[in-house]
Every structure is written in C-alpha cells, then in structure tokens.
Design brief:
By secondary structure, the protein is mainly beta. It has 1 helix and 10 strands; from the N terminus they run E-E-E-E-E-E-E-E-H-E-E.
Length: 152
C-alpha cells in the first residue's frame, strides 16, 4: 500500500495528446476521424461502445468528441515501465478532472478529463504524494484524499 506509485516518467500536459494515426500506423491528415468511445451506464458496472467523430489537428487530438465526453488514460504504476493506454470515455458524470491510482482489475493510475494541463496537474500531484484521489479544475486542486488515509 505504501510507496506504490512507480510511474517511469513525469506526466506533462503533452502526455495527454492522442496521436492521430490510422489502423496501420499511418499519420492522419488534419480533419476528423471516427473513434471508439467507452460509455459508462448510470447505476451499472457495464459499459457500451459508441463511435464518435473527433477533430484532429497538428497530428494529435487534445479535444474531446463532445462536451459530454472525456479522454481516459491508464498509466502502469507498478514497475516503472512508462507504458500507458489512451482512449475516449463518456458517462463518468464529472466536469472537473479526476485522477485516481485504482482502476478495476489492474489497479493502475487512471486519469479522466478534458483539459491537458488539469489532467497533468492531477496526475503529478498524486504521484508526488504517493496516491489517492484528486479533482482539478482550471489549474486548481478542488479537493483530494491521499493514501494512506489518516483517521483522527
């Protein structure tokens, strides 16, 4: 439980840009592409798949498909590998950026949001303190709980 945040690289705002590449690894021209979106369903633990057109510019996506969608990143935090996965999500019901080191099944670092700077601030804040949960909006930490929890 202690000293478990072993993320190999410092997470910066540019970390959250999703490369604009096609199915064979080719670079996509500026414009839009269809992406798969994982939708969380209210009150359920299941998800569904949606397809949404996303704007791409400068060979990367740093925007979300719509105001109700977010980018989702999962960072490996156990072995300093520096690996992570990125995608799109919908239905989390948050407007601030949320980061937590527990993701079901793998217990890795999960970052959900729509703003590169806020996502980086949230992720790095809890890497630095060793874990927990944090909500960030407009460059400010709105609230957090860090591990280990203290009881007084």
């Amino acid at each position: 439980m202690f000293n478990s945040m072993h993320v190999a690289t410092r997470i910066e705002p540019d970390t959250f840009k999703i490369p604009a590449v096609g199915p064979k690894g080719e670079r996509l021209p500026d414009g839009a592409a269809e992406v798969r979106v994982m939708r969380s369903l209210p009150g359920l633990t299941v998800t569904s798949e949606e397809h949404v057109r996303v704007p791409w510019s400068m060979a990367a996506c740093s925007a979300c498909p719509s105001r109700t969608s977010s980018r989702l990143f999962v960072f490996e935090r156990h072995h300093d590998t520096g690996t992570y996965a990125a995608g799109f999500s919908r239905g989390f019901g948050i407007t601030a950026r949320l980061r937590r080191p527990l993701a079901h099944d793998a217990h890795n670092l999960l970052v959900v949001g729509d703003n590169d700077e806020d996502m980086a601030l949230a992720a790095q804040a809890l890497i630095d303190c060793g874990g927990g949960e944090v909500a960030v909006r407009d460059g400010r930490i709105l609230g957090w709980s860090s591990y280990p929890f203290s009881v007084s």
